[in-house]
Design goal:
The protein has 222 residues and is of the alpha/beta class. It contains eight helices and seven strands; from the N terminus they run αααβαβαβαβαβαββ.
């Protein structure tokens, strides 16, 4: 009953505050048809990312984990003229579909999707002196999230926002005895954020059509 209620509220929010969007709807449909896992952000979370981009007046965004490009479109649409979004994805099938979805949205000149293992691609980005990024969205393999966070700090500036998805893991993040590598990764990330003097961070629990999870937001302060 709880999950049914969560989904009903999600649908109400989407229908009332977000409205139908053919480009975004098609991106989800194409992702489903291609067999991509249904782990994209929800419409309400997509719009939250969009608002956060606008709040920090971001001109440069780094996304770690592209999937089908759904969250990418939400964020890229919030960029001003001349803005740029670099998205990292390790699966060639996902990259191909995401590029198609991005092109359909008319954002191919704004979004640069890079294929490769993120920790290797991040090294290349640092070597190219790309950045700093105004907003960094981490939504990739959870085991590596602590390392992604360390890279986000290197590629950010004072005032940058670092957003990390899926941090609560159905409440298991509070379980210190967990053997789940994904949960362990999120616990390490939260502990890193807590001990990091250059950021002020929080995390929120969320429920909805994606189940019970959460999101973390860290502001780079020094």
């Amino acid at each position: 009953m709880a999950e049914e209620l969560w989904c009903a509220v999600d649908e109400y929010i989407a229908q009332t505050l977000i409205k139908t969007d053919a480009v975004l709807d098609t991106a989800l449909e194409k992702s489903h048809a291609a067999g991509l896992p249904a782990i994209n952000v929800s419409p309400s979370h997509g719009k939250l990312l969009h608002i956060l981009v606008r709040l920090v007046n971001a001109r440069t965004i780094l996304e770690i984990g592209t999937l089908g490009g759904y969250s990418t479109i939400w964020m890229a649409r919030a960029l001003p003229p001349g803005g740029r979004l670099i998205s990292l994805e390790c699966d060639p099938k996902h990259v191909e579909l995401a590029r198609t979805n991005i092109a359909r949205a008319g954002l191919e000149r704004v979004v640069d999707i890079r294929l490769g293992i993120a920790l290797e691609t991040l090294t290349a980005i640092a070597a190219e002196n790309i950045g700093p990024f105004d907003l960094i969205f981490i939504d990739a393999d959870k085991v590596s999230t602590p390392e992604y966070f360390k890279w986000a700090l290197k590629l950010s500036r004072v005032g940058s926002l670092i957003v990390v998805d899926n941090v609560v893991r159905k409440g298991e993040v509070a379980n210190a005895r967990t053997n789940d590598p994904a949960v362990q990764g999120m616990r390490r990330f939260i502990e890193l954020a807590a001990a990091e003097p250059r950021v002020t961070a929080t995390a929120l629990q969320t429920v909805g059509c994606k189940g019970y999870d959460g999101i973390s937001i860290a502001l780079v302060t020094s």
